[in-house]
């Protein structure tokens, strides 16, 4: 089992992830779009740039309604980002198995705080999805699957934190491999698409002279 | 540590042997007996000298630890399964005798808003984290006696390691959720006139007629304050246990552990009752924490004063409107909530 998880399954999941992500991004980039023959009312680039950053802050009109979502969203994403790239086991893994070099990992206390942020954020976001009727209505199976799968990956990682049991490490790695294989076919793709998506919308706004 | 041991050895060397010598002139007493009696501090606490500066560093063996370990094994470990089993048996018996607590006239379908999205998210966050902590905590507490015979030592070691990491990690999230719960619900849970009547009438089970109640009744208020106060005691004692480097001695750690374990057992036992009452025990209760709305008949049966206020303010949501708000699909298959938009 250890051989399978550390060897063939790892390389297979990595291949599915890389090819799948490239395929999805390629599909978006090379998708046929109708040419816009309208007269441009403004430049596209500043609109793209503005929208890219303005969407980090909720619009004033809707901020009170989505406050909890925004706070939980930031807690989760920043916590997960810190865990993924700065946890000691991850930095060591990247150094020894992927890139050949590493960087300074975060201290243990920071790891604990980051994981608590990430867990709290994810739980609150998923509960909101379930409990708010509008969110529940627009949520698909994929949205729930992604939340549960990400939670399992984070949980197995934290349960293996002591690094004393090979079985716990394998369980975490196996859950990561499932997550990687599911990634390109799910809404997890927003990791890569949110920047071009915002820029595209912003560019269209800019060209149409919309200040939003 | 070594200096403390040497100090004990030096002291022990001056102690004359108490046991008589054997006829052939050879002592039958273990020559180390007196030394270890001193080291283990059988006759009282004996603090030695150590180069290491810190709390309890002069104590070679903490005899109070033995007392604590015996207490842990003889009390919480032994009685916790009995407490949980007793509560479950009691609820089962109650359900068999009394059945589901129904509503006179049944559910009407007309609803009143009881909890906001934020309040329900907070409740379920606390509930999820609490359940996780309860399971991992019980694995740590009862695993040796209950799980090792089933899964074996190796598997239990793995479960215990995972549980410890998970338990320590989720503990502060519980504390944060608890504090948010305190700020969000405290005002509505202050005891008022009439609450004692509710208690004396056993929530309506004793005597005839209906017992009056406001937004929260006495039982709900008491459960709330139990969660807050015992939850805070568990959280603070847990933080003391998980952060041993803040200068607290072994005795404080042992007391914290006792508070943590006894508080958790009490809270889990009452939580089982709460889960029963909020789901299969009472008709229409679960809806409050699922959709945030309750049936008007349910409100009148359990919280009549609040129901009257809602009627006066015309806050009743008709069944069709409630279905629309919940996004239930129309016969055409289009969600009503989306159809309007």
How would you summarize the topology of this molecule?
The complex is a heterodimer of chains A (212) and B (341).
Chain A: H1 2-6, H2 8-29, H3 44-54, H4 63-86, H5 88-99, H6 108-131, H7 133-138, H8 141-159, H9 166-182, H10 190-208
Chain B: H1 2-13, H2 33-39, H3 63-74, H4 76-98, E1 111-113, H5 117-151, H6 153-185, H7 195-200, H8 218-242, H9 250-278, H10 286-290, E2 293-295, H11 296-302, H12 304-312, H13 319-325, H14 336-340
Antiparallel strand pairs in B: 1-2
Helix pairs in contact in B: 1-2, 3-4, 3-9, 4-9, 5-6, 6-8, 8-9, 11-12
Structural commentary:
The complex is a heterodimer of chains A (212) and B (341). Chain A is mainly alpha-helical and 212 residues long. Chain A has a single domain (2-20, 66-208), classed as Transmembrane di-heme cytochromes, Chain C (Fumarate Reductase Cytochrome B subunit). Helices cover 75% and strands 0% of the residues of chain A. Chain A is built from ten helices and no strands. The longest helix of chain A is centred in the middle third of the chain and has 24 residues, at 63-86. Chain A starts with a helix and ends with a helix. With 341 residues, chain B is an all-alpha fold. Chain B folds into two domains: 2-61, no CATH class; 67-325, Transmembrane di-heme cytochromes, Chain C (Fumarate Reductase Cytochrome B subunit), CATH 1.20.950.20. Helix content of chain B is 63%, strand content 2%. Chain B has 14 helices and two strands. Chain B has a two-stranded antiparallel sheet. In chain B, α1 (2-13) packs across α2 (33-39). Mean pLDDT of chain B is 84; it is low at 1-17. The chains are: A mainly alpha (212), B mainly alpha (341). Chains A and B meet through α6, α7 and α8 of A and α5 and α6 of B.
């Amino acid at each position: 089992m250890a051989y399978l998880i550390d060897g063939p399954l790892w390389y297979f999941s990595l291949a599915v992830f890389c090819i799948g992500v490239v395929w999805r991004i390629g599909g978006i980039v090379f998708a046929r779009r109708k040419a816009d023959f309208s007269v441009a009312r403004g430049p596209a680039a500043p609109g793209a740039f503005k929208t890219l950053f303005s969407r980090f802050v909720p619009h004033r009109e809707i901020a009170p309604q989505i406050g909890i979502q925004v706070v939980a969203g930031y807690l989760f994403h920043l916590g997960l980002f810190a865990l993924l790239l700065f946890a000691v086991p991850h930095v060591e893994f990247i150094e020894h198995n992927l890139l050949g070099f590493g960087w300074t990992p975060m201290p243990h206390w920071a790891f604990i705080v980051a994981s608590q942020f990430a867990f709290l954020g994810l739980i609150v976001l998923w509960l909101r999805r379930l409990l708010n009727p509008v969110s529940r209505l627009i949520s698909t199976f994929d949205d729930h699957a992604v939340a549960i799968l990400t939670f399992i990956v984070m949980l197995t990682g934290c349960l293996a934190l002591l690094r004393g049991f090979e079985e716990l490490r394998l369980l975490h790695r196996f859950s990561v491999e499932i997550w990687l294989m599911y990634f390109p076919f799910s809404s997890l793709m927003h990791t890569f698409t949110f920047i071009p998506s915002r820029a595209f919308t912003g560019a269209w706004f800019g060209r149409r002279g919309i200040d939003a | 540590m070594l200096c403390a041991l040497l100090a004990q050895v030096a002291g022990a060397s001056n102690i004359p042997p108490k046991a008589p010598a054997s006829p052939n002139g050879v002592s039958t007493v273990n020559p180390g007996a007196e030394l270890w009696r001193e080291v283990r501090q059988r006759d009282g606490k004996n603090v030695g000298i150590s180069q290491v500066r810190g709390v309890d560093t002069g104590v070679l063996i903490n005899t109070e630890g033995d007392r604590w370990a015996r207490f842990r094994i003889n009390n919480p470990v032994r009685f916790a399964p009995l407490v949980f089993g007793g509560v479950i048996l009691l609820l089962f018996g109650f359900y068999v005798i009394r059945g589901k607590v129904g509503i006179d006239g049944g559910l009407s379908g007309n609803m009143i808003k009881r909890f906001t999205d934020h309040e329900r998210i907070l409740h379920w966050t606390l509930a999820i984290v609490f359940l996780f902590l309860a399971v991992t905590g019980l694995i740590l507490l009862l695993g040796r006696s209950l799980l090792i015979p089933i899964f074996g030592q190796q598997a239990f070691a793995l479960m215990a390691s995972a549980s410890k990491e998970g338990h320590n990690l989720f503990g502060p999230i519980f504390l944060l959720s608890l504090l948010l719960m305190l700020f969000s619900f405290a005002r509505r849970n202050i005891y008022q006139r009439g609450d004692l009547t509710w208690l004396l009438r056993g929530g309506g089970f004793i005597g005839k007629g209906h017992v009056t109640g406001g937004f929260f009744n006495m039982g709900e208020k008491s459960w709330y304050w139990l969660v807050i106060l015992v939850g805070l005691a568990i959280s603070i004692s847990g933080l003391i246990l998980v952060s041993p480097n803040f200068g607290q001695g072994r005795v404080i750690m042992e007391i914290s552990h006792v508070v943590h374990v006894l508080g958790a057992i009490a809270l889990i036992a009452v939580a089982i009752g709460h889960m029963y009452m909020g789901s299969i025990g009472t008709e229409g209760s679960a809806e409050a924490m699922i959709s945030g709305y309750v049936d008007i008949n349910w409100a009148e049966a359990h919280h009549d004063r609040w129901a009257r206020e809602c009627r006066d303010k015309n806050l009743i949501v008709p069944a069709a409107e409630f279905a629309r708000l919940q996004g239930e699909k129309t016969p055409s298959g289009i969600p009503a909530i989306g159809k309007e938009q």
